[in-house]
C-alpha cells in the first residue's frame, strides 16, 4: 500500500517556518554589521563607478601602486593605492579641480578621514587599515559624489 503525505496548507507551512526561524537566531555580529553598513549610506549622493585605467608605460617594477579611477556626475576621482608595513596609503585627485570649500572623506568600515583638496584637486591619507574603503567628494552647491566600495589589501 502506498502512503501519500498529508498535504500542508499555507498557514501551517508559515507557522512551521516561524517556529524554525526562532530556533536559530541571527548572530549579534551580523546584526551589528548590518546596522553599521546602513549607517554608511548617503541618500541623494551620486555613485561614482569604476572606470578603465590605462596601465602606465615603461614601468618595470612589479611593486607599482594600484591605480583606480571612478566617474559620476561630471566628476572623476583618480586614486593611487600603495602600502607600507601592512597599512594602506591613498593619494588622489578630483577632476575638474574643485571650488573653494570642497571636502573629501576617505571612509573605511571603522573610521573616516577628512581632507581639504589642494587647488589642483589633490589629497592624500596614509596609514589606513586594509579592507573596504570609499571616497566621498563634497562639493559646494552639489550633491555628494561617492565612489563604490572597493577592497584594498597591502
Key attributes of the depicted protein:
single chain, 154 residues, alpha+beta, Immunoglobulin-like, 2 domains, ten-stranded mixed sheet, 2 helices, 41% strand, elongated, Carboxypeptidase regulatory-like domain-containing protein
Describe the structure.
- It comes from Streptosporangium longisporum.
- This is Carboxypeptidase regulatory-like domain-containing protein.
- The longest helix has 13 residues, at 10-22.
- A hairpin with a 2-residue loop joins strand 3 and strand 4.
- Helix content is 16%, strand content 41%.
- With 154 residues, the protein is α+β, with helices and mostly antiparallel strands.
- The chain has 2 helices and 10 strands, in the order H-H-E-E-E-E-E-E-E-E-E-E.
- Strands 1, 2, 3, 4, 5, 6, 7, 8, 9 and 10 form a 10-stranded mixed β-sheet that branches.
- The mean pLDDT is 85.
Give the overall shape, derived from the CA principal axes: elongated
Return the domain count: 2
Strand content: 35-45%
CATH topology of the largest domain: Immunoglobulin-like
Q: Between the first and last Cα atoms, what is the distance in angstroms?
A: 67 Å
Order of helices and strands: HHEEEEEEEEEE
Organism: Streptosporangium longisporum
Protein name: Carboxypeptidase regulatory-like domain-containing protein
Amino acid at each position: 500500500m502506498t502512503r501519500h503525505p498529508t498535504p500542508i496548507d499555507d498557514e501551517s507551512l508559515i507557522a512551521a517556518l516561524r517556529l524554525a526561524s526562532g530556533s536559530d537566531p541571527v548572530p549579534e555580529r551580523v546584526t551589528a554589521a548590518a546596522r553599521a553598513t546602513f549607517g554608511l549610506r548617503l541618500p541623494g549622493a551620486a555613485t561614482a563607478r569604476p572606470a578603465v585605467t590605462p596601465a602606465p608605460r615603461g614601468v618595470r617594477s612589479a611593486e607599482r601602486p594600484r591605480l583606480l579611477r571612478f566617474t559620476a556626475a561630471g566628476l572623476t576621482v583618480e586614486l593611487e593605492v600603495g602600502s607600507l608595513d601592512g597599512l594602506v596609503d591613498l593619494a588622489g585627485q578630483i577632476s575638474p579641480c574643485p571650488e573653494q570649500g570642497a571636502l573629501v572623506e576617505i571612509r573605511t568600515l571603522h573610521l573616516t578621514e577628512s581632507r581639504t583638496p589642494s587647488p589642483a584637486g589633490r589629497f592624500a591619507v596614509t596609514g589606513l587599515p586594509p579592507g573596504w574603503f570609499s571616497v566621498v567628494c563634497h562639493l559646494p552647491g552639489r550633491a555628494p559624489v561617492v565612489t563604490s566600495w572597493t577592497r584594498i589589501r597591502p
